[in-house]
Amino acid sequence: MKRVFIVNPVSGNGRALNIIKALKEVCDTENLDYQIIYTEKPGDAKKVAEKFCSSFEDIIVYSVGGDGTLNEVVNGIAMSNTVLGVIPAGTGNDFYKTIKKSNRLFEEVDVGKVNERYFINVASVGIDAKIANRANELKKKKFLSGIVYYIAIALELANMESIKLKIDDRDFFEEKTLLAICNGRYYGNGMMISPNALINDGMFDVYEVNKLTRLQTLKMFKLLLQKKHEESNLIEHYQIDYLNVDSPVPLICNVDGEIMIDNKFVFENIERGIKLLTRDHHKIMSLHDKFHK
């Protein structure tokens, strides 16, 4: 089986490049058929993944980077027979946190789709999407890389505004602070938004939060960090496989850490949309642990 490693060389301030050095040693030692391709700009990972998705060979396409690189690879191979491997080398690596303790070798997992874009982890609108957008801007300043999410939270709290949404067949627009649609369990650099989410149950775990004050929002984030948010009356949690969201103005939507802007978002859960390699018998994916100690 051929292995293709799609590498974002700037992920994790160069962490991806360090991992690749060790990965070459593993592949050469075990005489594996492999290819390493480096991305140069946004969109490259999707294009490369699509190229190998059209091949008739048995191929594992690995995302070597952060959640943004992973999202691009997912969009290149979703709904195909190509197998996805994840070697986390970014800042957050949130999806990997959901799968890293799996004992299976392969698993068919769900993917989400919002409008025409696939996602494998979490999509959201509201304050957390604004925080993700702000964090993406801050990541360009490399000296802030370890604390970008905390700075982004502080900045967005200072400028906090609710959003107006009409959800599914409700009769009116409602003011919301947050709406998160979860396939995976973690987002925002390790916050466990959806403790019991399963990536193979055909359902999203949805977290809906009405308009909050700054003080209530701080309380919500505190509960989230303590993994007690599902007990709070500030947050409504339910499961669904399809969700329609309309807004009178363009909204930021955080899709696996990437940003979409639109007035309307349609979220759909697609069962078994990705073939996922959760363990590698050649110990390739364990290279993550070596470089994250």
Q: Which stretches are low in confidence, meaning pLDDT under 50 for 5 or more residues running? A: none
Instruction: State the helix count.
Output: 8
**So what's the CATH class of the largest domain?**
Mainly Beta
Order of helices and strands: EHEHEHEHEEEHHEEEEEHEEEH
**Whole-number radius of gyration?**
19 Å
- Roughly what is the average pLDDT, rounded to an integer? 90
Number of separate strands:
15
Quickly give the structural class. Answer: alpha+beta
What's the CATH architecture name of the largest domain? Sandwich
**CATH fold name of the largest domain:** Tumour Suppressor Smad4
Fraction of residues in helix: 25-40%
Strand residue content: 35-45%
| Overall 3D form | globular
Largest sheet: 13 strands, mixed
Number of structural domains: 2
State the end-to-end CA separation.
30 Å
Write the layout of secondary structure elements.
Layout: E1 2-7, H1 15-29, E2 34-38, H2 44-53, E3 59-65, H3 67-77, E4 83-88, H4 94-99, E5 106-114, E6 117-119, E7 122-126, H5 127-138, H6 148-158, E8 163-167, E9 174-182, E10 186-187, E11 191-192, E12 204-210, H7 214-225, E13 235-240, E14 242-255, E15 258-277, H8 287-290
Parallel strand pairs: 1-2, 1-3, 3-4, 4-15
Antiparallel strand pairs: 5-6, 5-15, 7-9, 7-14, 8-9, 8-14, 9-12, 10-11, 12-13, 14-15
Helix pairs in contact: 2-3, 5-6
